[in-house]
Amino acid sequence: MIKQYRYAEISIDDIFHRTEEKTDVADAVAEILADVRKNGDEALRRYCERFDGAKLDVLEVSAEERAAAMEAVDPELIAILKEAAANIRAFHEKQKRTDFVITEKDGVVLGQKIIPLDRAGIYVPGGTACYPSTVLMDTIPAKIAGVREIIMTTPAKGGKINPVILVAAEIAGVDRIFKIGGAQAVGALAYGTESVPRVDKIVGPGNAFVAEAKKQVFGRVSIDMIAGPSEILILGDDTCDAEIVAADMLSQAEHDTMASAVLVTDSTRLADAVSAELERQIPLLPRAEIARASIDNCSKIILAESMTQAVDIANEIAPEHLEVCIDNPFAYLAQIRHAGSIFLGKHAPEALGDYFAGPNHTLPTSGTARFSSPLSVDDFIKKSSFTYYTQQALEQVGEKIVRFAEEEGLQAHGKSVSVRLEKGGTL
Amino acid sequence: MIKQYRYAEISIDDIFHRTEEKTDVADAVAEILADVRKNGDEALRRYCERFDGAKLDVLEVSAEERAAAMEAVDPELIAILKEAAANIRAFHEKQKRTDFVITEKDGVVLGQKIIPLDRAGIYVPGGTACYPSTVLMDTIPAKIAGVREIIMTTPAKGGKINPVILVAAEIAGVDRIFKIGGAQAVGALAYGTESVPRVDKIVGPGNAFVAEAKKQVFGRVSIDMIAGPSEILILGDDTCDAEIVAADMLSQAEHDTMASAVLVTDSTRLADAVSAELERQIPLLPRAEIARASIDNCSKIILAESMTQAVDIANEIAPEHLEVCIDNPFAYLAQIRHAGSIFLGKHAPEALGDYFAGPNHTLPTSGTARFSSPLSVDDFIKKSSFTYYTQQALEQVGEKIVRFAEEEGLQAHGKSVSVRLEKGGTL
User: Fold this and answer.
1) What integer best gives the mean pLDDT of chain B?
2) Which end of chain B has fewer CB atoms surrounding its CB within 10 Å, N or C?
C-alpha cells in the first residue's frame, strides 16, 4: 500500500526515495578497464566469452547481420520505429545551433564556432531488457549534431544481438556496432583497441558496472550522466481520473524496485482513489512484483494545501519526469523551473515521451534537474571562441592590457602585448 | 633550453606535458567536507582561523567593505576593469538562447524551455595571486544567463580581501561574498550552512584542495571543470617575429612550472630564433624561475613539414589556447576542429583574451577541447522539454505506443496509454 502524507508532515528530501547508493564494484571495474587498456581486443574477447558466452573472432557486427535484422523484424514495428525516429529528429533539429561573429568594433573580429564531436559511443544494455527507444534517443541527437562517426556497443549473449536493436541502430544512423557489453565496452570506447576506435563521449544507460566504468573514464572522455533510479512526479487536482493517474504511476514503478512515483494533489478524494486504484491494478501487471516494491517502498502520495503549493513542491524536488495532469496545464508552465521532461495535460502520459513524441527520454535524475538537462544536440557539440585584432585595434587598447597584467603580477603577459606595441608595423 | 623535435620524432601524446597528476589530498578533503556538512558555520570559522589566520564573527563581506574597496582602488584601474567587463558582456550576450516551440502537428505542442540556475557559486583563489579577470570571466556569463543569486567565496588572509577582487565582483554583479577559501568553501557552497546558501553550480579555479573538493561534490552540484596545467600551442611560419613568439610562449610559461608552451612551425629559421629569444627573455622576467622550469621541462618546438601538417598537429593535441600567428589566419579557421580559444593573426596575443577581448578565459585543458567548451552562458542554464497532446492527437498514435511498449516488455507503459484510449472523452 502506498504511503500518504500531508506536505507539512514530510521533509522535501524524503519525498523521493533518493539514496546515495554505494556500489562495491569500483575495484573490479578498475581492473577490467586496465586490462582493456593494456590488452585491447584480446581482453575484450576474453570478457565476451566469460560474461556473454560468446566466442568471437570478429567483435564488430557485419553488414550482413545488420541487413538480416531488417528482414527478421515485423515491418509494422519497423514502421513504428521509423515514425518515432522522425518525431525525435524533428524535435532535436530545433536544438541545432549556429556560429556567431561580432564585428562591431573597427579591426576586431570575435566569434564562436560550433563543432561536432569527432566520434560518439552509445552503450546499449543487453540481457532481458531490449530498449530500441534508447538506441533512437541516444543516437539521433548525435547524428543531428554532425558527429562524424557513431559507435554502438551492446552485449551479445551467445554472439547474438536482438534484431530490434540492430534495426533501431539502422534507422537512427549508427555507423559501427560492436558485440561488447559491461565495463569492458566502456573501456574499449574510452581507450580504443585494435578494432574499436576511441570516442570522445560515451552515452547510454547500463548496470552498476557500466555506470562505475563511465565514472572512472570521465575526464578522459565526456559522459552523459550517471543516472539514478527513475522518478515521476504527478501533479493532479480534484478533476483527475484516479485510474489514469495510478496507471501513470505504475508505468514508472514497473521499471525498477528503486523507482519512485509520487502524486502531489490538493484533493483527498483523488489521493484515496489513486491509492485504491494502485492496489487494484498492481496484481494485473506482468511486472507486479517490481511495481509492488516500488509503490510500497519508494513511492508516495503528498497532500498539498493548494495546486500552487504543489508546483512549489515540484520545483523543490526537481523531478526527472513531471506530469501536470490538469486541464489548463499551460497556466503552470512558467512556474515550473526544475524538471527534466514536462508532460502537460491529461492526454500526455510519460510513455508518450518515452517512445514517441520527440523530446529525449535520457533525463536528469535525483534532483540534478536543478542544474542538468535532457540529452540533446548540445551534448554532441563543443564550442571554440576566436579573437582577431588588427595592429591598430591592439594599439588602441594595449596599454590597458599591460596595466591589467601588472595588477595580476604577470609581467610576461604584459610583455607579450608591449613588445607588439614597440615593434609597431614591423611584424 | 627548450627542446626541439621534428614531428616524425615525437608522439602526439608527448608534445604537451600532460601527466595524470595524482594528489593525495582526497582523505583530507573528504574530512573537511564532512565537517562542514555536519558543523556548518562553526566548522567554517575554525578553518578560517586555522588556514587564513582570520577570527571571523561574520563570514560575509559587508556592504561597507564593498563600498570601501571601490574607494581604495585606482580609478584608472576601475575604468579598465569596466571596459573589460563591457567587452566580456558583449561577447557572452551572443550566447543567450531562447525557448522553442513546435506546433506543426494538429493537437501537439512540443517545446524546450531555457531556465537559468537558481544560484551559482564562484570560487576565487586568494594567496599571492590576485585575479580580478577570473572574477569577471566567471561571474558575467552567470549574470547574463539570468542566475538569480551569485555567491562568491575567497580566502581572506587576516580577514582582508584584496580590494581589486571586491571591485571586480562589484562590476561583474556578484550578489554576496564570503571570506572562505579552500575545500571548506566548496563544502559550504555544495551543502549550504547557516550563513552560506547552497548553490547549484560551483565554478572557478583553485589549488589541489579546491580541485579535489569540486571532484568530490560533483553530482550533488554541477561544476565547471577540473582544470589541468595551462597550455598554449602557437602555429607560426617563416614570416613570424621570433621575439614576439617567444614573448607569447613566456606569457604561458610564467603561470606555473607545469604550464606548457609549444611552437609548431615549418621554419627551422623561426625554431632556432625562438629558442635563442627564449634564452634572452627568460632572465628578464620577474617570474624567471617558474618560466625557466616550464620552458625546459614542459615546453617544446616541433618542426612540421608544412603549415597544413601543423594544423593537423594542433587538432590532434586539442590545445587550451591556440595562436595562429600567420598573416592570413582566417584561411585556417575552418580547418581548426579542436581548441578552446583561438587567437587569429599576429596582433592577437593570448593576453588579449586573458583580460580584455571578450571571449572567456576559463577553457578546457589537457586535450578535453576534443569534447569540452570554454565557460559560457550555457554553463548557467539548463533546459526542460515539454509535451502536450490533445485527446484526439493521442488517439491517433496511441496503438503504436502500446505496441512499442510491449516490444520493450513494459506493459504498464502501454497500459498508461490504452486506459486513456478506452476512456475516450470521459477524462
Assistant:
1) 94
2) N
Complex ipTM? 0.95
Domain residue extents for chain B: 3-19+228-358, 26-223, 391-426
Same fold, B3-19+228-358 and B26-223: yes
- Which cell goes with A53? 558466452
Closest chain A residue to B130 measured between Cα atoms?
A408
Residue A6 near chain B (CB below 8 Å): no
CA proximity to A353, closest of A252, A253, A281: A252
- Residue type at B135 in one-letter notation: V
Buried (b) or exposed (e) across A410-420, using 16+ Cβ within 10 A? bbbbbbbbbbb
Residue B196 makes CB contacts below 8 A (sequence gap 6+) with B41, B44, B59, B151, B153, B178, B180, B188, B189
User: Which residues have C-beta within 8 Å of that of residue B169, sequence separation ≥ 6?
Assistant: B66, B135, B139, B152, B177
pLDDT at A129: 67
The phi, psi pair for A415, rounded to 5°, reads -60, -35
Residue B366 in grid coordinates: 589537457
What chain B residue is nearest to A414 in terms of C-alpha separation? B351
pLDDT 10s digits, A44-96: 999 999 999 999 999 999 999 999 999 999 999 999 999 999 999 999 999 99
- Look up the CATH number of domain A26-223: 3.40.50.1980
Establish whether A361 is a catalytic residue: no
Under a CB-based contact definition with an 8 Å cutoff, are residues B151 and B189 in contact? yes
Residue B169 identity: A
Strands B108-116 and B100-102: antiparallel
- Per annotation, catalytic residue among A212, A320, A323, A350: A320
List strands edge to edge, sheet with A321-325: A3-6, A300-303, A260-265, A231-236, A321-325, A341-344, B381-389, B108-116, B100-102
Count Cβ–Cβ pairs < 8 Å, chain A vs chain B: 374
C-alpha cell at A204: 547510454
Among the partner-chain residues B77, B378, B419, the one whose CB lies closest to the CB of A403 is B77
B95 with A113: Cβ contact below 8 A: no
CB pair distance less than 8 Å for B164 and A407: yes
With an 8 Å Cβ cutoff, is A423 touching chain B?
yes
DSSP letter for each residue of B84-117: HHHHHHHHHHTT----EEE--STTEEEEEEEEE-
Q: Mark yes or no for CB contact A110/B129 under 8 Å.
A: no
pLDDT in tens, A134-180: 999 999 999 999 999 999 999 999 999 999 999 999 999 999 999 99
Domain covering B3-19+228-358, topology:
Rossmann fold (3.40.50)
Please confirm, yes or no, whether A321 is among the known catalytic residues.
Answer: yes
Fold of the domain built from segment(s) A3-21+228-358 = Rossmann fold (3.40.50)
User: Which residues of chain B lie closer than 8 angstroms to A281, CB-CB?
Assistant: 415
Residue A413 known to bind ligand: yes
